[in-house]
Design goal:
The chain is mainly α. It has eight helices and three strands. Strands 1-2-3 form a three-stranded parallel sheet. The radius of gyration is 18 Å and the shape is globular. Bound molecules: zinc ion.
Length: 249
């Protein structure tokens, strides 16, 4: 079930049978010469929407702008500051928890978001802790590439040239879901350099075409399809485990 294509009455009904919701979360940032700017929010959205086709789960709208200050020297990147991002996640959580959702899983598509999502969780729990109350809800962060079996499959598919940004696995997922948006380029060198991530102009000087350690030319739609199918199954298992986690009295 997709929240944005449901009515309030349908969500009220869903809450009678489940208190779990998935929020795909990512970033809108450059992904090298062939990667779509939306790659990091498209991947978790594609996986969550695939999972929803075969299981009674609820997927919230995608939180599609994240921590991308280091990509701002490339056209099209849109970023939030950590403080804005943390505040916005808090309001999403308070909205959903207010309706009765007690298990909120953020399915993340951008490594640069991890620290700030965890900080947002702490901020949100702190509201309850300082008020000497129980929060009444649990938050969970899952990176799509950490879902059971997915990292192993990606390492098998791309033993070399996976890298850490504009990776062939994430590009493959968007190629599978959006074949009309596949782009082509000659990569020189085939595998991009690696290095530290600092400010936007330092990033552009180190990584001139936007890739970090990767060869996105290895991506194929078929490999993306394999990743999506496996990730969707693992996500459903993750949600079942999360919803049945015992809460101490
Ligand atoms: Zn990415």
């Amino acid at each position: 079930m997709l929240l944005h294509l449901s009515t309030w009455a349908e969500i009220a009904q869903y809450l009678q049978r489940s208190r779990v919701v998935v929020v795909p979360i990512g970033s809108n940032e450059q992904h090298g010469p062939t990667g779509l700017l939306g790659t990091d929010w498209l991947c978790p959205e594609i996986i969550a929407h695939e999972a929803e086709k075969n299981a009674d789960i609820l997927v919230a709208p995608t939180f599609n702008i994240g921590m991308a200050q280091h990509h701002l020297a490339f056209a099209g990147t849109i970023s939030l500051r950590p403080s804005t991002f943390i505040a916005a996640i808090g309001d999403w959580v308070r909205s959903l928890a207010g309706h009765g959702f007690t298990r909120i899983l953020f399915l993340n598509g951008h490594g640069g978001n991890i620290a700030s999502i965890e900080a947002a969780f702490s901020e949100t729990y702190a509201d309850a802790s300082f008020a000497r109350q129980r929060a009444g809800f649990a938050l969970k962060l899952c990176n799509w590439w950490d879902l059971e079996g997915v990292g192993e499959l990606a390492r098998t598919q791309f033993p070399e040239g996976h890298g850490s940004h504009a990776t062939p696995s994430e590009i493959a997922i968007t190629q599978w879901a959006l074949p009309d948006s596949i782009k082509h380029a000659d990569f020189a060198p085939p595998i991009a350099p690696s290095g530290p991530i600092r400010d936007a102009f330092d990033f552009r000087a180190r990584f001139p075409d936007g890739r970090v350690g990767s060869d996105p030319g290895l991506a194929t739609p078929a490999k993306g399809g394999e990743l999506v199918k496996l990730a969707a199954q693992s996500l459903v298992r993750e949600l079942v485990a999360f919803s049945s986690e015992p809460v101490p009295a």
